[in-house]
Each structure stands twice: as structure tokens, then as C-alpha cells.
Specification:
Layout (H helix, E strand, L loop, with lengths): L1 H20 L11 H28 L2 H34 L4 H11 L6 E4 L4 E6 L1 H11 L2 E4 L6 E2 L4 E6 L5 H8 L2 E4 L8 H15 L7 H18 L8 E3 L5 E4 L5 H15 L4 H17 L3 H19 L5 H21 L1
Parallel strand pairs: 3-8
Antiparallel strand pairs: 1-5, 2-4, 2-6, 3-5, 7-8
């Protein structure tokens, strides 16, 4: 859109300048033929660009493409979070693999600073978009203290709200300001460090598709498929532990982290609640649980599958279904029961 608008404006300004310059050639014997030919050629290119632009907009307005774009953004956000976690773990792996008794004593000395917490209140309000944990770790190493971050990226912070608890003997105004500089606040949520934001966007599309005014179960099913793919990918990941260490392998910052159950339940809960009158979406949710159960390898994965299966089953049993629909429901529930029995 921006490129197309820039080309159109540039062509318009060029033609205006050219019209003004033609006054100098009205009575002369020389006309800038190459200039006029270039203007005509660029105008024709602009028309082709307009055709392409209309085609591009019409394609991007299709629900399937919108859902796929949001899913790609969700996957990128999740990958960035786990990539950052891996980099932090690699940075401290050498120390963690060889912890000696003096190291343990040094950790114990450090944890003594956790007493007498100093609450730090936010000087501004807004949504937390990113938190620079590496910066916070450096500041706490300089202070030889320990920091507890009590908020997450995605949280809305008001003025004078406690966002951190600092365990250190002394904290100057400059140090407090430096700690606050580790937070990036803005007027809206972003998916930079907030995978729940992109997940909520997919959920919002599904909920609007299920509304009586739109009644588009196909788009809701597409959202369920993408969310199921996200959950299946999460079963292969190790979630952040919520702790950072300095170069001496001393714990400096603890923070809240997202979990598999939290993200997975967010993905399914609202759609499950709103799809009580749409059997096709409920059956698709059961199929999604089957796909997750096939890749589950941890107790939290099985707990999520069992919880969602019981909720959907309870909702389906309250409906008056014909025999064919009951058979479809029973087949999926039996498949889930077998997977839970073998793996859970």
C-alpha cells in the first residue's frame, strides 16, 4: 500500500513539474521528447501498478489469507521468545555445568539480598511491550542484588503501580531510573514478546465468525486449525524458566513466564464456549485435541487434552443430536480416550 501510494504521488508531482516546464518550450524549436516519452511510460506503469494493487488488496481481504498472516505472526513471536531463551541458556551453560561448593556459597550469599524488598513503581502508564532482562541483569549485578519482576509483556501498567521488587542494600534514583529503562511501554499491545496477543487475534476472528450476524463456521474452523498447529509446535518446546543469571552464575532476575497450559487453554477456551451451537467447530476442536495428543510427551500436555476433552464432551452431551452426529462425536471421543489411556 505504501509503495503504491508513493509511486502514484511521485508520478503526479513529476507530471505537474513537466506541465510547468512546457511553458518554456511553447515558442521554441526544441521539445524534450525523451522527457514526455518517459512520462507516458511511467504513467502506463502506474496503471499496471494500480491493477496489481487492486488484486493485492482483494487477496489480502480474504479471510483465509488474514488468518494465515496472523498465524505467521504468532509463530514468529513464539520462535523469537524461545530463541532468546536458548541464547540466555547457552550464555550460562558453562557455569551451570560445573557448579562447585564456592559457587553454591556465592549463590547463598546472593539470595540473602532477597530480604527487605524495595518496591519500584511505574512512573508512566501503558501496555508493556518488551522487557530487557539482559539490561536488568547487568544493573542488578552492579548493585549485587536480586530483582523480582511482577508484570509481563502484555500487562497494562498504571501510574504508581508496583512493577518490580528490588532486593538490595541501597538503591539510588539513578539506579531506579535505569531499572525502569528496561521496560518499553506503548499505547497498545504488540506480539514482540507477547505470543498471547497474536493468539487472541486468531481467537477474535473465530469468535466474530461464530457470531449470529456473520455465521461463518468455515473461518472459525480455519482458526481452530491454525491454533492446533501452534499447540502442536509448543509440545516440542522447552518453556523459559523465568530466571536470569550473571556471568558468575548468580541469580539476579526472576520474572513471570508463559506456560504450555496457559497458551493452549487460551487458544481453545473461548472458541469452545462460543461454539456450543456449532457442531462442526466442536468436532474440529476434538480433532485438534487428537492431533495434540498424538504429539504429547509431558504431563502438562495430557492435562490440557483431558481438560478440554471433558469440557467439550459435557457440552455435546447436553445437545439433542441425531444418530449420525452422535456417531461422529463418539468416534472422536473414543480415539481421544485411547490416546489418553496409552500416553496419559
Amino acid at each position: 500500500m505504501q509503495r503504491s501510494l508513493g509511486v502514484f504521488i511521485s508520478l503526479f508531482i513529476y507530471c505537474l513539474i513537466l506541465v510547468r516546464m512546457t511553458d518554456d518550450f511553447a515558442e521554441g524549436h526544441f521539445l524534450p521528447g525523451l522527457t514526455f516519452t518517459g512520462a507516458i511510460a511511467m504513467t502506463l506503469c502506474g496503471i499496471l501498478l494500480l491493477i496489481y494493487f487492486i488484486h493485492h488488496v482483494s487477496q489480502n481481504l480474504q479471510s483465509d489469507n488474514i488468518i494465515d498472516n496472523v498465524y505467521s505472526e504468532l509463530q514468529y513471536s513464539i520462535n523469537q521468545i524461545f530463541k532468546q531463551q536458548k541464547e540466555e541458556e547457552d550464555a550460562t551453560s558453562s557455569e551451570n555445568n560445573a557448579i562447585t561448593k564456592p559457587d553454591m556459597e556465592r549463590k547463598l550469599v546472593s539470595t540473602m539480598n532477597k530480604r527487605g524488598a524495595i518496591p519500584l513503581k511505574s512512573p508512566v502508564c501503558g501496555y508493556i511491550q518488551t522487557i530487557n532482562y539482559a539490561h536488568l541483569t547487568k544493573v542488578m549485578k552492579k548493585l549485587d542484588g536480586y530483582l523480582e519482576v511482577s508484570v509481563n509483556p502484555r500487562d497494562f501498567v498504571v501510574n504508581r503501580m508496583i512493577t518490580m521488587n528490588c532486593h538490595t542494600k541501597h538503591l539510588s534514583k539513578e539506579d531506579e531510573k535505569s531499572l525502569h529503562n528496561g521496560f518499553t511501554l506503548g499505547p497498545k499491545r504488540t506480539p514482540i514478546e507477547d505470543p498471547e496477543f497474536a493468539a487472541h487475534q486468531l481467537i477474535e476472528i473465530a469468535l466474530r465468525a461464530l457470531s449470529p450476524g456473520i455465521n461463518d463456521p468455515y473461518s472459525a474452523i480455519a482458526c481452530v486449525d491454525k491454533l492446533t498447529a501452534m499447540i502442536c509446535n509448543l509440545t516440542q518446546e522447552n518453556f523459559p524458566k523465568g530466571t536470569t543469571y550473571d556471568e558468575d552464575d548468580i541469580e539476579r532476575v526472576s520474572y513471570k513466564t508463559t506456560s504450555f497450559q496457559n497458551l493452549a487453554n487460551i487458544a481453545y477456551d473461548q472458541i469452545r464456549q462460543y461454539s456450543r451451537t456449532c457442531l462442526a467447530v466442536q468436532l474440529r476442536l476434538l480433532e485438534g485435541l487428537i492431533r495434540v495428543a498424538e504429539q504429547a510427551s509431558h504431563s502438562t500436555h495430557w492435562t490440557f487434552v483431558l481438560h478440554q476433552k471433558q469440557m467439550i464432551e459435557h457440552s455435546l452431551k447436553q445437545q439433542n443430536l441425531i444418530d449420525l452426529d452422535k456417531k461422529e462425536m463418539t468416534n472422536r471421543l473414543q480415539t481421544l480416550d485411547e490416546l489418553l489411556k496409552n500416553g496419559g
